[in-house]
Amino acid sequence: MTASLTPPRPESLPEVHRSVRVPNAGGFLRKLLAFVGPGYLVAVGYMDPGNWATALAGGSAFGYTLLSIALLSSLMAILLQALCARVGIATGRDLAQLCRERFPTSVAYPLWLLAELAICATDLAELIGTAIALQLLFGVPLILGVMLTALDAFLILWLQNKGIRWLEALIFGFIALIFGCFATQIALADPDWGAVLRGYIPAASIVMNETQLYIAMGILGATVMPHNLYLHTALVQSRDYGRDLDGKREAIRFASIDSTVALSLALLVNSAILITASAVFNTAGRTEVAEIQEAYQLLTPLVGTGAAATLFAVALLLCGINATVTATLSGQIVMEGFLRFRLPPVLRRLITRLVAIIPAVLVTWFYGTSGTAQLLILSQVILSLQLPFAVVPLMLFAGDKGRLGSLTAPRWQLALGWASAALILGLNAKVILDLILQG
């Protein structure tokens, strides 16, 4: 017998690939707990500082109206992340690897560049948001705070050496603290709950009003983030599930439950930011609060207690740290998957971090503390414009019966997924047309 000359296919996130054991025996809950984790790493991208900027701007300017966009975006995210889990488990490949293997280089390399641009836009928001939190809490200069965020590369290495479960536990702990901060803030803000519920009903003004539509696109880009689609297809492969058909079916089911619960929690956090902005700022007639620093300074006099502002800054810091960690992981997945570029872990982490930190330092150097809200919102609109270039390949792979066979996504998921892609493309076209007409 002669050995095959075909080199083994590289694994996605090799440091943690199939590192979490899934029990063969036991009840539903025991198996579910083995899969809990990746969904929460994905969920942090849905409550990052970019979400804060868009939610603050939307809530202060338009009250509870844009809650419907937060809900719609989250429902789309839940569907798309479930499809990511399916594709990653069924193929054993992440989205970047699939694009490199199944598309010609003339398509794959532009997709890689667009993915890198999306990660840079993501990191720009996360690095600046974290730096703002450090400035508010400890008086750290903004540009120094941006540079300090590079330390997350070493945090990831240390936690990954201890195991992916340690990283997941840290992220989950931070999410629990963030949720606690906002639950307290909402109690202090005392919103009109009838108006909150009505805010989840879509309003025609969102499409008719150009400013509302622009911020709505920012909320969409801040919620359904391109890098999370790459990230989730890789993270689900950290579980050592059965590689037969039944094992993959079971893994898809539990991974989908994990991400759905985690993203539902993210929806509550996103809603809480917008509800707080509406209840505190819009109600008081402060309809132009978009800068995070301004929101921090106004919370104490408007709410009547300094605890509200402190909780606001603490939650922002935790969101920023969480999001920079997962964005760095996404950078590794995209670089390795598209370029098949392997480096020692320390060097690879530093490179993926530098790709994003250099633009953030330059932006902070030129703009300082002024204009950060506009930059954060713009970064989220850029993400929305990049989103179809990740969603469309995902939908093509999820509906590929030739490769997924019986694990192909159900028709209703494919129909809703393609409808989501069409909606994103339509809204993007509207924003671009508005910008052209304004120019």
From TrEMBL:
The chain crosses the membrane at residues 28-47, 67-89, 109-132, 138-159, 166-188, 213-236, 257-281, 301-329, 350-367, 373-396, 416-437. Keywords: Cell membrane, Ion transport, Membrane, Symport, Transmembrane, Transmembrane helix, Transport. It is a multi-pass membrane protein. It holds the Pfam family Nramp. The keyword Repeat does not apply. Its main location: membrane. It comes from Pseudoroseomonas ludipueritiae. H(+)-stimulated, divalent metal cation uptake system. The gene is mntH. It is found in: Cell membrane; Membrane. It comes from the Bacteria. InterPro entries: NRAMP_fam (IPR001046). Belongs to the NRAMP family. This is Divalent metal cation transporter MntH.
